[in-house]
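Worked problem 6 (solution included).
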Amino acid sequence: MLARLIDDYKFMCTRDTDKIIARLLDDGVPVLPSHSHLIPVPTAPSHVRRRGFDHTYDFVRRFAAARSVAFSPFVVRRHSHAQVGASRTKRQQQATQAYRMKKGVTLDPEAVYVVCDDIVTTGASMAAMITMLRRYGASHIICVALLQQPWQE
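Solution. The predicted structure is:
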């Protein structure tokens, strides 16, 4: 049911689903330090244009508000390469060049950075985000996702 909920959210553009996903994350993620920054994995610009919204941005913003921690969307997507249907190797290649930090962003090495996504398939996007955040000085990084594909219990 959760996979269907996310599919409807992403592909049927049921935008209000961000409230449900944020609540599920709030219920399932352990307590985060008050100096945490929640960072959405940026959605491909072509998907944002097609949907009319960035689904990850929306549910992470709500999750951050529920936890009273910083919502920090300071990572942007460089290109619109589709990961759906791509091989593991192709996904990893795409992810290494997919993201960049917004200009002027400085990371606090003492803060906790929480990278948030809806679904993890190969882990390539998460790994690329971790590498980039470390390069910018982050020491404490947590990754959070609602589902892992292939679907597991």
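Discussion: The helical segments are 2-11, 17-28, 45-51, 55-67, 88-96, 124-135.
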